From TrEMBL:
InterPro entries: MFS, MFS_trans_sf. It comes from the Bacteria. Residues 1-53 are annotated as: Disordered. This is MFS transporter. Keywords: Membrane, Transmembrane, Transmembrane helix. It comes from Streptomyces lichenis. The lineage of its organism: Bacteria, Bacillati, Actinomycetota, Actinomycetes, Kitasatosporales. The chain crosses the membrane at residues 65-89, 95-116, 128-151, 157-177, 264-288, 294-312, 319-340, 346-369, 381-404, 410-431. The keyword Transcription does not apply.
Length: 448
């Protein structure tokens, strides 16, 4: 979102900054301050550093505290499903049962998460996140107990479905960044890039940590550790009250952000993007067959993490359609590598490069979600985006798995590229309705 234009007939006087020996406009130390007289083409509402560096991003009061506080809890996003699969498959001897149980939990989370986020918008993040996390931890412990006692299969589904109340701490962190830098689009872009890099890092380290704990200690160790980290991280995050967005309690029931102009079309793009991730994971694990599959997927996440950090330092992010063009093109590399060489190292290199388009796409998409969501409903808006991604991941995993069974993993590698092309098509389709791409945002509430 470009900076607002100054009113006509404004002039400027020079303000020397000790940080800038050269006279000239700099966001980190503005050399031009609006007065009256001459027009200007740049007068940002609030100064921000050139390129919005990560160092300057964390100069905001409380930014470091809430970021460090929620890291333990967010690490569990990549731990619980892997731990559950290892634990259930080891006890019941059925990967089909393990997969069905985790899929049930994923579906339940997609249904419950928007309501949890709406409560967080209305009553505050801390007041909702802590009890919601406590319920989710009880669900994880119930699953562990059922597996340990070899309870009937239906109890596993019921216990794991109870974990659906797990709050979306990544979305809550993004809502805090959006409030801290509500007048600085460049800083919001950098913050979204950082949060995407954190997501990728957690999905790199989480499965590795879960698999190690379950193998080195006992099958239930991954779930126990994940529950402890989730509860501890949420308590620490909720304690950071200074950066928490204020609760908004409208006199009348406010409509869901799903009704904001442009939001439904954007969420369909997220749905197709999620299918890229879900199908890529299943097909890669089927092709690699063994521990190497986790390493190869970690390389893809590493490429995305690095690209996200670099993208965040750019002065301005690109458009979503351009990012999807890059993703579609780069997702063609894995099937080409498999068809041309059949070599796992070559495939790993192709996935490392293909991951470079993932984070920029997600950063740009999440930034657009923030623009489309009313200011008092940021938690719900961000969670709706995550819900769409989860739905796409589930659909992509199911579709990729079916193609692996019928056509083989080499041919099934066309699925991620096809899903990326679908996301690009949906994005282009939304461009034909320019009036619906931006939602009017109400003024920020007092203190918000």
């Amino acid at each position: 979102m470009p900076s607002p234009e100054p009113p006509p007939h404004t002039s400027f006087h020079l303000a020397l900054s000790p940080e800038s020996p050269v006279l000239g406009p700099r966001r980190s130390s503005p050399a031009l301050i609006p007065r009256t007289g001459l027009p200007s083409h740049r007068a940002p509402r609030s100064p921000s550093p050139r390129g919005s560096s990560y160092r300057r991003l964390f100069d905001a009061p409380g930014a470091r505290a809430f970021t460090l506080a929620n890291l333990p809890a967010r690490l569990t996003a990549g731990m619980f499903s892997v731990s559950a699969v290892i634990m259930i498959a080891g006890a019941y001897g059925s990967y089909a049962l393990a997969g069905a149980v985790t899929a049930t939990g994923l579906t339940a989370t997609a249904l419950v998460a928007p309501f949890t986020a709406r409560l967080a918008d209305r009553h505050g993040q801390g007041r909702v996140a802590v009890p919601a996390t406590a319920l989710a931890v009880l669900g994880s412990l119930a699953l562990l107990l059922c597996v340990h006692l070899r309870a009937p299969a239906w109890t596993l589904f019921a216990a794991y479905a109870a974990t659906a109340t797990t709050p979306n701490l990544g979305g809550m962190a993004r809502a805090r960044w959006a409030r801290l830098h509500r007048d600085d689009p460049a800083a919001r872009h950098t913050a979204n890039a950082f949060e995407q890099a954190v997501d990728e890092l957690c999905f790199m380290l989480g499965p590795v940590a879960a698999a190690f704990l379950c193998a080195a200690l006992f099958p239930e160790a991954g779930t126990l550790t994940g529950a402890a980290l989730l509860l501890t991280g949420t308590l620490l995050f909720a304690a950071q009250r200074t950066t928490e967005p204020p609760a908004t309690r409208p006199a009348t029931r406010s409509p869901t952000p799903l009704r904001s102009p442009g939001m439904p079309a954007h969420l369909t793009v997220f749905l197709a993007t999620g299918a890229v991730f879900g199908s890529l994971e299943v097909v890669t694990l089927a092709y690699a067959e063994g521990p190497a599959g986790g390493v190869v997927l970690a390389l893809q996440a590493a490429g995305s993490c690095l690209a996200g950090l670099v993208y965040g330092r750019s002065r301005r992010g690109g458009g979503l359609t351009g990012c999807l063009v890059a993703m579609t093109a780069l997702m063609c590399l894995p099937p080409l590598a498999v068809a041309a060489t059949g070599s796992l190292p070559v495939l790993a290199a192709a996935l490392l490069v293909a991951g470079a388009a993932t984070a920029p796409t997600m950063v740009t998409g999440m930034t657009l979600v923030q623009k489309l969501t009313p200011s008092g409903q940021l938690n719900e808006g961000m969670t709706l985006a995550v819900t769409a991604l989860l739905g796409g991941i589930a659909a992509g995993a199911a579709g990729g798995g079916r193609l692996v069974e019928h056509l083989g993993p080499a041919t099934a590698y066309a699925t991620p590229a096809g899903a990326a092309a679908l996301a690009l098509f949906l994005s282009l389709l939304s461009l034909r309705r320019p009036a619906s791409r931006r939602a009017p945002r109400p003024p920020h509430p007092p203190g918000g």
